[in-house]
Amino acid sequence: MIIIHEREVSNTHGTGVLLKNIMNVIDDRNNIVLCTYPQNTPDSAIPHFYFDDFSLYRGSKIVRKLLLSKIGASLYFRFKKLKFDKISVNTQTTVFITIYTFDLLWRTLKFMRLFPDKKYILYMMDNFIDFDDPEEGQLNKKAFTYITNKAHKRIAISQKLANDLEEITKKKFDTFYGPRLVNWNNINKYYNQKKENKICFLGNAWIEDVLPVVNEQLRRKKMFVTWFTNQKVFEELKQKYSLTNFLFGGSYSSEDVIEAIASFRYGLILYGLESESQNYYNRKLQEYSIPSKIIDYCLAGIEPIYYGPENTACFDFLSSHALGVLLNKSNFIDFLDNFDRFALKPVNLQKMKSIALNSSTESFMQLIKD
């Protein structure tokens, strides 16, 4: 399988974890990644190639207009000879695409024009493409609609994202949150483990300026959060924001961390302050994406605490599933005041297991099958 992605596939990002699971589900042989440019150290087990190596640039506005036409694309490639001898393109039948940006959008369209007969699976995990500009936005809309029409399956990670993409393309998008490799033999062990009245936190805060606010509220109540993340990142943020009430829990793989957190009662999700982020990137993440830590918490049998605004895909997901404790700056302190009383309430483990099942690789296989 060919994976067309913005950056390398690795376990350091939530999308990297999802993509590796997808590769294992669809086809675990001869997987290759085609991405925009190197950013981090790629997973050495998966060959990585870069669009720039094959002159697959997005092109000028004239080139982009040519690519939107079948005849124009044919003329363009007659004069623009691209060699793919480094990549076994012809032996790959499935191409998995996840597009974030304007740049990758047009590179993907070029690839699809060159190889129109592949089985394309489009999975939108985020969207930072401008569809609103009077000229560029219309071109982007036409390009994305072409990609959508060619896709064998169209999937969005949240209902909000699916709704917006359907409005743009007039095509139906399935929603799927996952996939996750689930060790069902361990689920009951984690669920039966005694939960201590403690809070853990996995991964990253989506908007870091929330950290000192939460830390001050924890400090006032003499409570602590155990943070499982990269130690270097933890130390840098602890020093930057004087995080006295965040404790380092360790750095684990995505599989081992579930066992490490199974004794906690709550798992924190820090999404930001109440006001909408002024940063475009963060605002789009809030609007469309759902952090993978929710599945980790469900697999461990611990209840999520969501701290952030209501206008996010994460808030919508949790509220629609009636899962977790939904808080913001004003009522988080009340939750801490009554922490022991809240923690006595039974956890709805059956609901968590249902979310894990619906987010599993088995469910993903059912979704993409012919």
Describe this structure in words.
By secondary structure, this protein is of the alpha/beta class. A seven-stranded parallel beta sheet has the order 3-2-1-4-5-6-7. It has 17 helices and 13 strands. Strand 1 (2-5), helix 1 (14-26) and strand 2 form a beta-alpha-beta unit. The radius of gyration is 22 Å and the shape is elongated. The protein has helices at 14-26, 61-67, 70-79, 102-114, 136-150, 159-169, 184-192, 210-220, 231-241, 256-261, 280-288, 293-300, 313-320, 329-337, 339-343, 349-358, 361-368; strands at residues 2-5, 32-35, 48-50, 94-97, 119-124, 153-156, 174-175, 196-202, 225-228, 246-250, 264-270, 303-307, 325-327. The chain folds into two domains: 2-175, Rossmann fold; 184-357, Rossmann fold (3-Layer(aba) Sandwich), CATH 3.40.50. The two termini are 16 Å apart.
Outline of the structure:
With 370 residues, this protein is of the alpha/beta class. The protein has 2 domains: 2-175, Rossmann fold, CATH 3.40.50; 184-357, Rossmann fold (3-Layer(aba) Sandwich).
